[in-house]
Design brief:
Helices cover about 15% and strands about 45% of the residues. Helix 7 (about 510-520) runs antiparallel to helix 9 (about 645-670) and helix 8 (about 630-640) packs across helix 9 (about 645-670). By secondary structure, the protein is of the alpha+beta class. It has a 33-stranded mixed sheet that branches. The protein has nine helices and 33 strands. Among the domains are: about 25-125 and about 155-195, no CATH class; about 470-670, no CATH class.
């Protein structure tokens, strides 16, 4: 028995010596270069492309199994602009032998030096990466072995790589059909500390079309069962010398049922400089060329592919800040929620400049094609719950403060309730409803406003001076459709506008009496801007299918008591109004609301919005009709002296002035 073990040990030792001798001696005496033609032929057969390698070939066996090659070329198909699809200057890989026996992989070196990958799509759409590989003959279908059970992990016990490097690489994409060529050069990738149970250190840099890009940080560990467990990373991306973004966090079970928790931090950068670096024009035209010069974003994103939440978001936009959070789920609908909080923003700086007014002699634009009906299907499925607040917002010249908006949507019903804001020493609240369950959308609006100084508001928002005073409003309206014409035809509801302690700008009814007196020697004319001051202007109205009616509009003013009634047909852009001003025989201030006798000068307002016709109601004029005033009474009540003939001539002159002034005023008020 002892002799048997003795000979076994002797035989084993001799065998081990032979193996060691083989791995040490054979590479020294065997000419591996003679296998080069065979290697090239086999690779060419496998890929269907030409393949060549250089003469500097080196193979080692022990203690590191290694291969070193140079001048490697994989050819392009016929007709390509370049000869090679892939070329590598030097390639080297070395791994340790003995750990392989226990399923442990230890790689000392994996280096690609100056690899070049050329991708081309020809004018006929054919790409050079298509058709790689020898054409396989059809074989009878064979019964496939059942797939190995999942979750068994890698067939190795451990992995260790000392150096993984790609140096001076290039990637070229040439689309001849589109006339586009892109190039990524100076590609350098270094991975260190590669193992299954430790994070991998990553260092990547390149130039994309001449612009620098880099990525550094750590990712991992991969684990023995890739796709399972927790994958953490902390990466910093730098691009175009102006953009820096950091991403850190973790993903649990990324290949099974991923759950992620990520932090994104994009440092302040200039989008304008970014586009300039790319050689592209800035895609947004803004009235202020200095905006969009400093943008930063920070947020936390967590959840699953079916339910994503954005938390603790902060967007810095030039001088403004927006805190935000959001949630998205049921993406087929989708089901969305958000919360936005602005501090201060001037939207006018971000809007484009107003379009220049076309020349009067320019040819008329061709009639627009029939508008395609809006598909409200996505809105019917949408589920939304969003809130927005803002401290100060400037838009179209108007400054609005303390904005609160809450918008909801479900089953085709969309509501904004409430929508509130402070503006121009007052406040306004509104409730808006939109029903898209039917073919045409139905909209409802309820608005209440209190204490708004309407003069500065119109001056800022419209650059017009039409009316001044403190506004109180109460509106309840409904409409159907989406086009302006359809909305006008279906406008229904009621409401009222009340202006206190203000003035109508552009016409001076009381001044006309003063000027009549002046021309007859009773007063001195003034050079002030035309305006009609009032203590109160009350405009109640009702709307039925686009026909707006007011029958009790009243204005109380020094020297004037005015009443108006009639219809405004929005659908047909027509006016049918009667205005009854009463010139009273006193110049007492705005606080005087007593009904006084005086001179009635009724006006009829007809025609269209753009070209209203203003004319006196002759039956209500002086000396006409059953209740007309005789000249002596007119003289005593208004002028105090003067002949009836002079009075009548003066009134005829003032009639034309009234027509001209009111014609210019009414379109502005209607707008």
């Amino acid at each position: 028995m002892k002799n048997i073990f003795k000979w076994i040990f002797i035989a084993g030792g001799a065998f081990a010596v032979l193996i060691v001798a083989a791995v040490l001696i054979i590479p020294q005496f065997v000419d591996v270069k003679k296998y080069k033609p065979m290697i090239e032929e086999r690779v060419s057969q496998a890929t269907g492309r030409s393949f060549t390698i250089g003469d500097e070939m080196d193979i080692s066996v022990f203690p590191w199994v290694g291969v070193s090659l140079n001048d490697i070329h994989l050819g392009n198909p016929a007709g390509a602009a370049q000869a090679d699809m892939v070329s590598v200057k030097n390639f080297e890989v070395r791994l340790k032998v003995m750990p392989l026996l226990s399923r442990q992989i230890e790689v000392k070196t994996f280096v690609l030096d100056s690899p070049v990958i050329y991708l081309e799509r020809q004018k006929d759409g054919k790409a050079n990466w298509e058709g790689i590989g020898a054409q396989k003959q059809a074989r009878p279908e064979q019964k496939k072995d059942p797939a190995p059970p999942s979750g068994q992990g890698l067939p190795v016990a451990s992995l260790k790589v000392d150096r993984f490097s790609i140096a001076n690489g290039q990637l070229i994409y040439n689309d001849l059909a589109a006339g586009m060529k892109k190039q990524v050069s100076d590609v350098n990738l270094d991975l260190s500390d590669i193992s299954l149970d430790k994070p991998v250190t990553i260092s990547f840099s390149a130039n994309a079309d001449g612009q620098p890009v880099s990525l550094k940080g750590t990712a991992g560990p991969i684990g023995k069962q890739p796709g399972k467990g927790t994958l953490s990373f902390d990466l910093v991306l730098n691009a175009l010398s102006d953009l820096e973004a950091r991403l850190n966090g973790s993903v649990v079970d990324p290949a099974v049922k991923p759950v992620f928790d990520l932090n994104i931090d994009v440092a302040s950068f200039s989008p304008r400089n970014l586009m300039s670096s790319l050689g592209q024009p800035f895609p947004i035209e803004t009235s202020d060329p200095k905006v969009l010069d400093a943008v930063a974003v920070r947020a936390r994103i967590k959840g699953t592919p079916e339910n994503v939440s954005v938390l603790d978001g902060l967007l810095t936009l030039d001088d403004s800040k927006l805190n935000f959070s959001a949630q998205a789920k049921e993406f087929g609908k989708p089901n969305l929620a958000f919360n936005l909080a602005f501090d201060t923003i001037d939207l006018d700086r971000y809007l484009p400049l107003p379009a220049e007014t076309k020349d009067a002699g320019a040819p008329a634009a061709e009639p627009a094609a029939e508008k395609k009906k809006t598909d409200y299907g996505p809105l019917r499925k949408l589920v939304l719950d969003g809130k927005m607040t803002a401290d100060k917002v400037k838009a179209k010249g108007a400054l609005v403060e303390n904005i609160t908006v809450h918008i909801k949507a479900k089953d085709g019903l969309i509501s904004v309730d409430p929508m509130g804001m402070d503006l121009y020493q007052g406040n306004a609240t509104a409730v808006v409803g939109l029903d898209v369950r039917k073919t045409e959308p139905q909209t409802s609006l309820s608005l209440n406003a209190e204490g708004i100084q309407v003069g500065p508001l119109l001056k800022d928002a419209l650059q017009k001076e039409l009316i001044e005073g403190m506004l109180r409003a109460d509106l309840n309206l409904s409409m159907t459709g989406e086009s302006p014409d359809r909305i006008k035809q279906t406008l229904n509801g009621k409401g009222g506008l009340v202006f206190n302690d203000g003035a109508i700008i552009g016409i001076d009814l009381a001044g006309m009496v003063r000027n009549v007196k002046a021309k007859l020697g009773a007063a001195v004319p003034t050079g002030e801007k035309p305006r009609t001051d009032f203590a109160e202007l009350n405009i109640p109205f009702t709307a039925v299918n686009g026909l707006v009616n007011t029958n009790v509009t009243r204005m109380q003013s020094p020297l004037i008591r005015l009443e108006a009634s009639g219809d405004i047909n929005l659908a047909k852009d027509l006016l049918d109004m009667r205005v009854d001003p009463k010139f009273v025989a006193t110049l007492k201030g705005q606080g005087d609301t007593e009904d006084r006798s005086g001179l009635m000068v009724p006006l009829l307002v007809t025609g269209t919005f753009a070209s209203p016709k203003i004319r006196p109601d002759l039956k209500g004029m002086v000396g006409l009709g059953e209740n007309g005033l005789d000249a002596d009474t007119l003289k005593k009540q208004v002028l105090g002296s003067g002949s009836p003939t002079d009075v009548k001539k003066e009134l005829e002159t003032k009639k034309e002035e009234i027509k001209d002034q009111v014609k210019g005023l009414i379109p502005g008020l209607l707008n």
